[in-house]
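look at this record:
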Amino acid sequence: MIIIVCCFFAAQSFGQDVVKEDADAPVMTFEKTEHDFGKVPINSVAEWEFKFTNTGKKPIIVQNCSSGCGCTVSNCPKSDDQVMPGESRTIKMKYTRTGYENKFSQQVTVHSSAQNSPVILSIKGEVTKDAETAKN
């Protein structure tokens, strides 16, 4: 009976993943991770800067920012630029709206040394010929 009980508790402990979070790890805290441009004119460029702060206790190194589309460009901090605890930086996303009317939704994935990496930043809007209703 004792062997069965020991085997049961051993199986229970092996079945659970133990995740240790580093209380001192860097954390990227963004003011917001999504931006809606609303209506925007054709043949223009929409830009938005996402601001983040290192709310952890160790420096953050941003390794890269990647997008799935050539129409979306991001400007990340350089990989040799450490974001110290309490410091802030921005990641700029730029979307070129050319050719035709459509709704758009684009994402950039930010990979870093932060505990909450990767972070996905999103922009969206509607390209329209009516420049009077366009806003940024």
Q: What stands out?
A: The radius of gyration is 22 Å.
